[in-house]
Amino acid sequence: MATATSGLEAIDQTRSAQPPRPSVIYEWLTTVDHKKIGIMYIVYALLFLVIAGAEALLMRIQLAVPNNHFLSPQVFNQLFTMHGTTMVFFVGIPVLFGFGNYLIPLMIGARDMAFPRLNAFSFWLSAFGGILLYLSYFAASGLYGAGSAPDVGWFAYAPLTARVFSPGHSTDYWTLSVLLSGIGTTATAVNIVATAFCMRCKGMILTRMPLLVWLFLVTSCMVFVVVSPLTAAQIMLCIDRYLGGHFFDTQAGGSAMLWMHFFWIFGHPEVYILILPTFAFMNEIIPVFSRKAIFGYPAMVAASVGIGFVSLGVWAHHMFTAGMGPAGNTFFVFATMVVSVPTGIKMFNWLATIWGGKVQYRPPMMFAAGFLFQFLLAGLTGIMLSVAPFDWQLSASYFVVAHFHYVLVGGILFSLFAAFYYWYPKVTGRMMNETLAKWHFWLFVIGFHITFDLMHIPGLLGMPRRIYTYEAGRGWEVWNMWIGIGAIIQTVATLIFVYNLVHSYFRGKEAGPDPWDAWTLEWATTSPPPSYNFAVEPTVTSRRPLWDLKHPHDTDSSYE
Amino acid sequence: MSSDRPTRHPEQHHAQREFALQYHAPGTREQAPTQHLLDRVSSLRTGLLAFAALLLLHAVPAFAVSPTNIFDPAATPARSIFSLSMLILSVTLVIFLIVGGLLFYAMVRFRHRKDDSLVEPAQIYGSNQIELSWTVIPILIVVMLFLSTTRVILETEAAPKPANAVDVTVIGHQYWWEYRYPKWGVVTANELHIPVSDPKSPTPTYLEMTSADVSHSFWIPRLAGKTDLIPNRINTMWIDPAVPGLYLGQCAQYCGAQHAKMLLRVYAQSPADFALWIKQQQQLANPDLSANPLAQEGETVFLHNACINCHTVSGTVANGRFGPDLTHLASRDTIASGPIVNNPQNLRQWIADPSLMKPGSLMPSMHLNDHDLDAITAYLTTLH
Predict the structure, then answer these.
(1) Which position among A44, A64, A410, B182 has the lowest Cβ density within 10 Å, counted as fewest Cβ atoms?
(2) Please, which pLDDT band fits residue A19 given cuts at 50, 70 and 90?
């Protein structure tokens, strides 16, 4: 790091010598810069977040009162299919890979990802996947006039996807867009693994690599294993639909269970693929705002790798009601419960990191605090669902919907908001407005808890998911009304957040290179970083190179 | 918190300033606005209390009134799930109170205060003993939960079948239920009748389940957990309510447009009532239509239209199997798989255009004129 000062001078010198720039659109369309690709991933995901959020809001309006005629069953079924598919494939994965793309090279002191062109390729594949999915609204009717958007649910159980039950082309749009995004995801995973292994700066041995990079490494390795079955299943479905195959065609001896296995061996690890990067954000944010080093770095790495392995063996807990028999059920109960051990280790290490610190409640830490409590609760309802007999009652009910939204919204989305507030100054050079951030936080917390705390209850009272309406007198009405009110509050909060993103880009306070007094390498370059990140390759001697620089008499490297 | 690695002593603030100079970033270290934290905590508490009050206000009547409350079990499988779930809920509640309490304490106790010096807190890197303890304790909890779970799985799924159990075949259709009683040759739809089971000499009902089209799921929350009906596959489950009554539920696996209106009704009857019901269902449809010319005309309309391609009325030429068996339609309380009360007005409207009451239903409108509709309704209401 002794070279950092001269590095900044070098930036000033080279800036004036750059050739004249091509048009902005050309530059973004053809860029292979990991930062620009990262930003495009994130903006693209935000766009889809707003679309899929609006779909959720429409569904909540429909369900707010019994026997509602606001939406027809066909439209409602399309909405939950599109909402789920969009959120998982075109919000969750792109936004996390966007952050990964932007941050990983910066955090390991590299100038770019290992394969910049592959990076651009996988972004555009994912982007086309999302666009293709929404084209179904206009184009899927096809020759039969029987389609529009897909309406088979995001897990598209066979044989509902067979041509007999799903004529027209809506299911094909779903299949192909998921297939495309899967290829893009795999290519990015290859890129992240290669980058983490081959592009680290001098001195950054694996045990000094930031936890964020570790977690993205684990996530990417999981992508290799689990996206391939999904891709295979989509191809098999295409063969069934158009080439006379019978993999999932139960009328011809095919197996509906086969699809469930293929889908869930992707589908469950997918949740971990989404949650591990958000753990990664917490691993960076909680220490910085507690002013302490992360507690138990080796245990955190081991727990992450552990989660990665164990999560590959839990998929059939989505199939406890499919009649696998006592032996199968028992195995998957155990495997699922075991995941809670490494996950608990992470929770306790965050607690220990806060313990004895001086916690500063700036916006990233406020959202991190929300994450910790909500993720704890989500984990505990997860334990309830892992108990197969309890799951026979709870599965496919609103309790499950509440549980996984607690994970996806209370956990992943809160962590993402924290990440936005934390790294926005690095990406744009400006601070986000803190007053708006507080309004966003409190409104979102209130809306979140009204919606998703109460959503557990209709599940306990026997309300199945994916129903477009229900009759009065089952004890469900009042909850669904409150759930709808909470959804509206969350919408308002999200709009404040989006406004803040735009507003702060033009009006935000100058951030400087290191506004949070943080310790990892991305804060050692300017905000926003130059296209080559570091003029001179940094050299590190510990896990927190900037701490060492700021505390030359008390460096981490003397303890590691 | 103790540590087996050296803890580091606080550093002075001047190092900060040196760093700031080095990076051309003036004033990088800002004060966090935490002075109102305590106020916020108390308003948070008020909010939480109000939220809890609201919850109770709504929860008590909702749980009392709901006919599908999983915490109000009425049969053995639901009861063993209920007691297991109470154990799980208490264990998770204790974990939540301990971990959540510690988190809350740490977040408030170790917050940055306005009058804090700019000195960094002691840096602690970890402790193997502590890591070991919060690895081993959860493993012990997991083993405990796993063993109690396994017991209930075996009790439910591997229970020996009593000799005088009642067998029913359940077939899921888009969007209705077919029930067959092979021992008595009875076929019916949408309303399942079973005998109550006396715990002293149990007569549980065993359901053999499959599907004619896509996957469905059978869920009567007060009787048992759900079991999927999967085409080309047979699953089984059993129920044994001891108290006569009507138990409600509905399809719990998304199966297409009208997944929402595929309701389940289970009538548990005393052995005598059940025997009577079986006897009545075994009769052929043999209504005496001589005094009712409109119904007589209705029979002709029924038998000369496409109705008979999908529906069976035993004793006539109608032997379709795609839709519900109508032999004893008038003995049922509901039509269209549960959502509509079975009375002549509703029945007439349903036949006129099923998609008005259940859009997406596979039964087409036959475009009958008003007179034919009246006639066919009159005929169907005689099928007791």
Answers:
(1) B182
(2) low
B166-173 sheet: strands from edge to edge: B186-189, B176-181, B166-173, B205-211, B235-239
Of A373, A520, A516, the closest CA to residue A432 belongs to A516
Q: What is the pLDDT of residues B177-231, one digit of tens each?
A: 999 999 999 999 999 999 999 999 999 999 999 999 999 999 999 999 999 999 9
Decide if B226 and A553 are in contact by the 8 Å CB cutoff. no
B4-26 residue pLDDT tens: 444 444 444 444 433 333 333 33
Report how many Cβ contacts below 8 Å link chain A to chain B.
Answer: 344
Residues 6+ apart with CB under 8 A from A437: A363, A366, A421, A500
- Show the domain range for B270: 166-281
**B227 plus B309 within the same structural domain:** no
For residue B306 the two structure tokens come to 């496409």
CA distance A538 to A7: 9
B313 contacts B327 by C-beta, under 8 angstroms:
yes
Give the global pTM.
Answer: 0.91
> Between vectors from CA B295 to CA B294 and to CA B301, what angle results, nearest 5°?
95
Last residue within a domain, chosen from B126, B157, B188: B157
φ/ψ of residue A58, rounded to 5:
-60, -40
Which CATH number is B297's domain given? 2.60.40.420
In the structure encoding, which two tokens stand for residue A509, read together? 């306070």
Judge whether B198 is closer than 8 Å to chain A, CB to CB.
no
Window 79-108 of B: residues touching A by CB (8 A cutoff) are 80-81, 84-85, 88-89, 92, 95-96, 99-100, 102-104, 106-107
